[in-house]
Amino acid sequence: MSDESTYQVQFWKLRKSEGRRRPWGVRWVTAGKEHSESYATKALAESFRSELVRAARAGEAFDVASGLPPSMTRKRQAGTFLELAVAYVDHVWKGAPPNTRRAVVVNLAAIVPKFVTDLDHPPAEEDLQRLLSTRLLPPPRRDESTDAEDRAVASWLRRASRPVEDLNDSLAARALLQSLSTAADGRSVTSSTWDKRRAVLHRVAGYAVEIGLLPANPITGRRVGTARTTEGVDPRVVVNPAQARQLLAALTYVDASYRPDRDRGRRLRGFFACLYYAGLRPGEAQQLRDTDCKLPAAGWGELVLSGSLTGVSGEHYNDGARHADRRPLKRRRREDVRRVPIPPALVVILREHLDAFGTAPDGRLFHAATSDGRIRESVYTRIWKEARAIGLSPAQAASPLAARPYDLRHAALSSWLNAGVPPTEVAERAGHSVAVLLSTYAKCLDGQRDTYNARIQDLLDPEA
Fold first, then answer.
1. What is d(CA 118, CA 61) in angstroms, rounded to the nearest whole number?
2. Which among 137, 253, 261, 291 has the fewest CB atoms less than 10 Å away?
């Protein structure tokens, strides 16, 4: 804005000029200086003129040079929410690890399509999210060419994305927060997903405050009622010890009949056994080295965990290539370790694994013939699916029982708690806080209800 401002503002009626691409004109005068803007439709022109009139009635002083009041000048300088999201990703990209970059991109890809104006012919929200997460937000992918359909989707989003200034509208901010509770297909998301989206939105709005686009963070202190869903583990996914042994044995039959040369099931039996017997996360098992294992000839052993190996797609790295990301233990400092005692059954399985398959050049027990040596989640999930089909009855295979490899960790922690191990000890072995452990993993083993019923019966009626 210039230094000269005025309260002397005069508005003229809309004028239509035939034959122009934007025929509808808005004209107004500030202290004798005429201004005009043109729009493609009468509705857009009326909306802009109404905004000018509201600012004048609110007592704002108009800048003589630009003809705009301060509220509209800030809105134009702020740009759209899409532009703010791109700027925030650039800001985060400089020093954040790949998993953090991915989390920001994924959550913003879900938020940006929900803060748009009502333009004609909107693309499907799934298409908007896909394009945002793969092309528009990750810096390494923005310059890649796209097909005509994706260009049309991107063009619509750039035109429809609402101004950042609209976040100052209490109703608009509340509506955006409420919309975060639904997925692209209209289904409700879990409360943890909503919390993650809100957290990213809060940080983006905070960044807008830092760079002067917003006077204050409009998300601070603002929460809305969302459909809260339980975050605890579904008891139906938890296997009992007999079922776990059955599934681990079934892994030895994967590939055995038609591709014995690959032997994928036997190679990963120890990996899945670590999830069940030691309660490891998949990334922790992938980072496990022979030097981290104490495997005596008899009795209990120990694993000394020092990190996690995860994978992130190439668009979340500066060079655009896929990498294995070696990270510290979850919510721990890089130098921290976690010691996990392991039962004799796992000691035997790991000793057999080392005898049969050895280690990777860096000493890791579980590895693949890829550039980074990491076993892809899609690979071990597919192998686990095949093992379930072999090791479970048709009814069990059709149920949620151990549907995902991670459910083996759920079963481990649940079984330790039900065995009477103090929650503090279970939390230490699992790398959790006690509060998270009790709210998430304190579930009963499959097939143990009769035992518990008998205990209750003995308490209520000892003579029965």
1. 30
2. 261
The Cα–Cα gap between 384 and 271 comes to: 11
Contacts of 227 by beta carbon, 8 Å cutoff, 6+ apart: 181, 188, 191
**Separation between Cα atoms, residue 166 and residue 372, nearest integer Å:** 45
Residue with tokens 């601070």: 220
3-class SS at 10?
A: strand
The secondary structure element, H or E, covering residue 198 is helix 191-210
Q: Count CB neighbours of 145 within 10 A.
A: 7
The residue-averaged pLDDT of 11-37 equals: 91
Question: Smallest Cα–Cα separation from 157: which of 48, 101, 83, 208?
Answer: 83
The CATH architecture that domain 235-450 belongs to is: Orthogonal Bundle (1.10)
- Count other C-beta atoms under 10 Å from residue 255's C-beta: 18
Gap between the Cα atoms of 356 and 131, Å rounded: 45
- Residue-wise over 103-114: b if at least 16 C-beta within 10 A, else e? bbbbbbbbbbbb
Half-sphere exposure of 57 (CA within 13 A, CB side): 7
According to DSSP, the residues that pair with 6 across neighbouring strands are: 62
Cβ atoms of 341 and 301 closer than 8 Å: yes
Phi-psi region of 455 (alpha: psi -120 to 50; beta: other; left: phi over 0): alpha
Q: How far apart are CA 115 and CA 78, in angstroms?
A: 15
3-state SS class at 341: strand
CA dist 132 and 113 (Å) reads 9
2: its two tokens = 């210039």
258-271: pLDDT as tens digits:
455 568 899 999 99
Strand runs labelled E in 261-393 = 293-294, 301-305, 308-312, 323-327, 338-342
pLDDT tens for each residue of 385-435: 999 999 999 999 999 999 999 999 999 998 888 888 888 999 999 898 888
In the chain, residues under CATH classification 1.10.443.10 are: 235-450
pLDDT in the model for residue 227: 45
Q: What was the pLDDT predicted at 326?
A: 72
